[in-house]
Write a structure and sequence with these properties.
335 residues, alpha+beta, endopeptidase fold (from Nostoc punctiforme), 5-stranded antiparallel sheet, two-stranded antiparallel ribbon, 7 strands
């Protein structure tokens, strides 16, 4: 079903609440019709607030170290490895924001800030080291056919020798999934240079949320029978996209990375819209709703309130995400 046909089905469903949605969204989706054909573009730079402010300049600088990487790709790796946690430590002894194991750090760790110390726990050293390690791997496999970035990521996961042996990304499911995961996840950290394609599942997600209008908010609510079908903000958005076959993380700040980020001027119905008291850090996001057009969203706002329409143009508006199935699948299970 096309995006436009999906909206015809939704509009035909009727009800007072849905009539309000129709007024808001129909014009927006007519404008968006030509986008469904696949207009898109290559993204460069970092999306606003996608990387915590403390690390943004490092990621931007070192993400341009060689042609095989870019800032968004480096950010995706750091998020996948540690969720930008400089104190992260895995059971396999991987350490710090970039999750180096001791042997790899001994061989590839840099003194990124020039303080005379190579400290795996210091992002000023670990982030430059991660970029440098990526570029070293890219250099090892530079003569291998295929996409240099895919070959670099495959080398990171399976070893450069495997990429050389197979003449490209090895036929290992784990490695192929890693390459796809990081390249997909990088889209959620990149600032798009052209319009972002609309989500085909948007109509269904809004239809689900619209049916919940008037439902009393519940902190921690995910809509279960035991909870009386009540939701909090991210529980509602999670359930709305679950209804169309997309599994989102449970909390709002993790949902932000489930796809690329359209600008305010490019919002389309179905986009998730986010709010924060710290507009420089996506990890500080505290609220999310589903955009329906015309400057409004459906959201579960707070204790004592009901699921309703609210305006999005407030001082704490952070940004938006156009949810994609691949983007949601690429998210780590824990960050």
């Amino acid at each position: 079903m096309t995006v436009r046909k999906a909206w015809i089905v939704v509009i035909a469903a009727g009800s007072a609440g849905l009539a309000f949605v129709m007024v808001l969204v129909v014009g927006v989706y007519l404008v968006a019709g030509n986008l469904a054909a696949g207009i898109g573009g290559k993204s460069v730079g970092l999306a606003k607030g996608a990387v915590p402010a403390a690390y943004q300049s490092l990621v931007q600088k070192w993400g341009n170290l060689c042609e095989a990487i870019n800032p968004a790709l480096l950010a995706a790796q750091l998020y996948q490895e540690s969720g930008f946690n400089p104190k992260a430590q895995s059971p396999a002894a991987a350490q710090g924001i970039a999750q180096f194991i001791p042997g790899t750090w001994a061989a590839h760790g840099l003194d990124g800030d020039g303080d005379g110390d190579r400290d795996v726990w210091d992002p000023n050293d670990a982030i430059p080291s991660a970029a440098s390690y990526d570029c070293s791997l890219a250099k090892y496999v530079k003569d291998v056919p295929g996409d240099p970035t895919a070959n670099m990521l495959a080398s990171y996961n399976a070893g450069a020798y495997a990429v050389i042996k197979y003449g490209g990304v090895p036929p290992y499911k784990e490695t192929q999934n890693y390459v796809k995961t990081i390249t997909t996840l990088s889209e959620s950290f990149a600032a798009p240079t052209t319009r972002v394609d609309p989500s085909e599942q948007a109509a269904g997600a809004i239809a689900y949320a619209q049916k919940k209008l008037g439902t009393l908010y519940l902190w921690g609510g995910t809509g279960t029978a035991e909870q009386g079908g009540r939701f909090d903000c991210s529980g509602l958005t999670q359930a709305a996209y679950e209804s169309v076959g997309i599994t989102l993380p449970r909390v709002a700040n993790d949902q932000y990375n489930a796809g690329p980020h359209p600008s305010r001027e490019e919002l389309l119905p179905g986009d998730l819209v986010f709010f924060s008291d710290d507009l420089t850090n996506s990890r500080a996001i505290r609220h999310v709703g589903i955009y329906v057009g015309g400057g409004y969203m459906i959201d579960a706002p707070r204790t004592g309130a009901v699921i309703r329409f609210d305006p999005i143009d407030t001082p704490d508006y952070f940004g938006a995400t156009r949810v994609t199935e691949d983007g949601a699948k690429a998210l780590p299970t824990a960050v």
